[in-house]
Design a protein that fits this description.
By secondary structure, the protein is an alpha+beta fold. Helix content is about 40%, strand content about 20%. It has a 4-stranded mixed β-sheet with strand order 1-2-4-3, sandwiched between helices. The termini are far apart.
Amino acid sequence: MRATFAKRERIKKRSDFLKLFKYGRKIKNQYFIANYFKNNLSVSRLGITVSKKIGNAVERNRNKRIIREYYRLNKYKFSQNWDMNIVVIKKDISNSYLNFKLSLKEIFDLIERNALN
């Protein structure tokens, strides 16, 4: 199985983001807010939101790359297909990379756990 992150696995349209915020469920931890909603597509889709409050463009893009890479390597763990938007809410991410990844794992585990309920 190839671990890729194709265009069809990304949420790009504003209408899709608004649907997630309106109808989706929300979970939060130290670094992230995740909005998620079960979709009827053949794949899970991921959207990433990083505010300008987080830092300059280099920091924001680094955060997005880390989230995309983590998702790419772990998307096979989802038993159902989800639309997910991950919002980064904490600024000192670059100082604590391990905590960042652990928080991301916690978010994805909570989404999958809710799929079983």
